[in-house]
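ok trying this again, last paste got cut off
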Amino acid sequence: MHFTRTSHGEQELATRSIPLSVPERRLLGFITKETSATYLARKVRLGELERHLLHLARRGLIEIVVENGTADGSDVPTVVIVPTPETLKDVLQPLFAVLDNSALAAVKQNAKSFVRMRAAFGIETGIAMVEAADSQEALLVALGAVQRELFDLLGRESAAEFFEQVVAPTFYS
């Protein structure tokens, strides 16, 4: 699955005629041809990507392109563009992996291990949130807090590394 900006989206970037939130406008600017969810997830707070993409798609500013394998098993994918607002929620639903309790526990452990290896202190609030997270949504929020604390304590590179090693492999495919 990837995302492309529509001609209406191109026009909106030029004219700024539609009221969009700051994250939505930034996200629209980042979407070009064949932009992946993993790339876009780096541009917004954890857990907010689906909501922003859904809003942009409902306004006709972006298209969601889903690639399905062909029936004959060849390497050439069949590309389906999903244009209708009614189907957008169903298409975006699998954007994020759905984790069971054991997978949530593994992500929590990966996050704590990452932090222990890089910073012995200073990330207590985020780690406490990770430990207390009892749902996938709460865990995404907690991981976002850890990422911000890493950024504040160790800088952009460490926060980006956390995203690439802990968050992206788990939540974005």
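PB: full thing came through this time. The mean pLDDT is 80.
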